[in-house]
Amino acid sequence: MNFENLLIEDKGRIRYITINRESKLNALNKATLAELHVAVSAAFADGSIGGIIITGAGKKAFVAGADISEFASFNVEQGRQLAREGHANVFDLIENGNKPVIAAINGFALGGGLELAMACHIRVAAENVKMGQPEVTLGLIPGYGGTQRLTQLAGKGRAMELIMTADMITAQDAYAFGLVNHVVPADQLIPKAEEILNKILQRAPLAVASAIKAVNAALKYNENGYETEIAEFGKCFSTEDLQEGVAAFLGKRKPEFKGK
Length: 260
Prior knowledge:
With 260 residues, the chain is of the alpha/beta class.
């Protein structure tokens, strides 16, 4: 599929998804969200792809927010549907995916941009990055998981302050708050994301997928995370990868996982 707002590139088992609306600071309009749904779904379904790195085009912005002009005139039901579709089609899709997704945050990550980064499993930020949830300056609140994921990552107090003040924070502050895993110089951003993902790609793919599911269950109010962990742990015993991992360990060699 040809995308108007995304650049897709594969290097080895990594799929790079670049949001390519540089003149609009990579803002998430309806078309871009639809393309993200297709691109992420395709990567999760592609057996040759082991993980995804998401970043923004240019040096100014990862994603500087949503395209406000598209929903300025929405009524209550339209606003509710906008948030619901965004959750299901993009943000929850990424968070609950079967492969690791790393956000390489190269510039402003504001509103929907920060929410996109938080939906990813791991976040690496360039040291010049600014982040924030400015929605209350528009008479809105975060609608793509910002109130929930920001609370989960940074804690209730930080989330309350950042959302209600609409303040932007630096990459260093984001690291201190637990919002990002690593802060690096801009020219080391993609290499650092690749370093992390390549390390994950050496592990058993089905076990990685189970780990994502079990960790996510810890934050779901309607799911017993311990039971999910037990179930996923048990599923691992049906895989050839477990047999290979044990054999490699006992044989003192590197495992060759097949994702089976």
